[in-house]
Design goal:
Length: 208
């Protein structure tokens, strides 16, 4: 799931390490910008020992519905790379965390889909004489560490996992990316890309 989860302890002194126990967690709050996606897994609520609340937010960088120091733990799984204002998102997460609270997050990093990005850029330059964004931007891991520090997080750790998945051609990769809902969301992207540009990019991708 790509939503953000926030866990609230039973008492203000509750440490994040105790949130997995039945007594330690009073509520699990799930946040997303989509009500449909937020409610797709309601059948699993009975397997969670704590109360499960679902809250639609305008953006994962706009958590104004929650008071300061509300949560012991914030978990974000493959959602933050969709946030337009990442510095604000980190600031908001820090605001809703209790002192000594914990944040655990995953997101696609800067080198994600690099071969696809380069192939399309070279094809654009060769065929159309310019560049257009075909792949959504991803934050570099060094920038993530700096942004967390700016948001006043302490004891930060940023780990990078390099996972290589081989595809026989560019079009199969693009099909999987679209099926995952991770397609290009840049507003300034070209509305139409000539077939010749895609074919040129596919040839470049195969050669990489």
């Amino acid at each position: 799931a790509e939503y953000m989860g926030l866990l609230r302890g039973a008492a203000s002194s509750e440490s994040p390490s105790g949130l997995g126990s039945r007594a330690g967690t009073s509520a699990v709050v799930l946040c997303d910008t989509s009500r449909v996606l937020l409610e797709r897994d309601t059948a699993l609520d009975s397997s969670v020992p704590s109360r499960v609340d679902r809250v639609v937010v305008p953006s994962l960088s706009e958590l104004g519905v929650f008071a300061d120091n509300s949560f012991d733990l914030v978990v974000s799984n493959l959602a933050l790379h969709w946030v337009n204002d990442l510095p604000k998102a980190f600031t908001e997460i820090h605001r809703v965390l209790k002192p000594d609270g914990l944040v655990v997050g995953t997101l696609f990093g800067g080198e994600t889909l690099s071969e696809l990005r380069v192939s399309l850029q070279l094809a654009d330059t060769e065929r159309d004489g310019g560049l257009s964004p075909h792949v959504s931007p991803f934050a570099d891991f060094r920038d993530i560490g700096n942004l967390l520090a700016r948001a006043n997080f302490s004891l930060t750790t940023v780990d990078v996992d390099h996972i290589v998945v081989w595809y026989p051609d560019m079009f199969r990769l693009m099909s999987d990316v679209q099926g995952m809902g991770e397609g290009n969301a840049v507003a300034e992207r070209r509305a139409h890309v000539p077939r010749s540009t895609f074919l040129a990019a596919a040839a470049i991708y195969k050669a990489l």
